[in-house]
Amino acid sequence: MNRRNHRPVRRALGPALAAVLLTAGTAACGTSGDDTSPGPELTVEGAYVPEPVTADRAGGFLVVRNDGDTADRLVSAASDLSDDVQIHETSGGRMRRVDSLPVPANGTLELSRGGNHLMFMDLEHKPAEGEKVSVELRFEKSDPITVEVPVEAVNHVPGASGHTGHSGQ
Ligand code: CU
């Protein structure tokens, strides 16, 4: 239950971080000195995992919001649901694995149905609606963020009229 043991991974990000600062540095600290924001300021919203149809894989959807003036990247994820959580993008109706996804400065990274998403491979068990799944999101610059992600119905659609019609249970 203690997810803290994932922390040491952050040490390995050192070289990557340095590389990013070199590339981002031209914009971040080259000219103006009025940058009061020390880096990305990330929050995670609206996370959910739809109950998968089969036990071999599940998708994960969420929004990473960046209120900072510095861009970041989602580089990996870890979960108690799977030892192999991948980052996928969808293009032309087909999904493929990518190494990372950008979290723009003062913008959002949206993981949603039909688009970018997390993919939990080789599930430890088949999650059921009402359950919670612990997911740790790791970033190029920011500290990891752990989210307790609710498992929703197979056909769950967030936001848009999700609770009209059959709101009973
Ligand atoms: Cu996928």
Strand and helix layout:
Blueprint: H1 14-29, E1 42-50, E2 57-66, E3 72-79, E4 84-91, E5 94-98, E6 101-103, E7 107-111, E8 117-121, E9 132-139, E10 145-152
Parallel strand pairs: 1-10
Antiparallel strand pairs: 1-2, 2-7, 2-8, 3-6, 3-9, 4-5, 4-8, 9-10
This protein binds copper (II) ion.
Mind summarizing the main beta sheet? 10 strands, mixed
Give the count of helical stretches. Answer: 1
Top CATH class of the largest domain:
Mainly Beta
- CATH level-4 homologous superfamily of the largest domain: PCu(A)C copper chaperone
Mean pLDDT: 82
Order of helices and strands: HEEEEEEEEEE
Q: Which fold name fills CATH's third level, the topology of the largest domain?
A: Immunoglobulin-like
Based on CA inertia axes, which overall geometry fits? globular
Gyration radius over CA:
17 Å
The figure for the number of domains is: 2
Q: Report the CATH architecture of the largest domain.
A: Sandwich
Bound molecules: copper (II) ion
Count of β-strands: 10
Strand content: 35-45%
Measure the end-to-end span: 28 Å
Coarse structural class = mainly beta
State the helical fraction.
under 10%
Residue runs with pLDDT of under 50 for 5 or more positions: 5-10, 19-33, 161-169
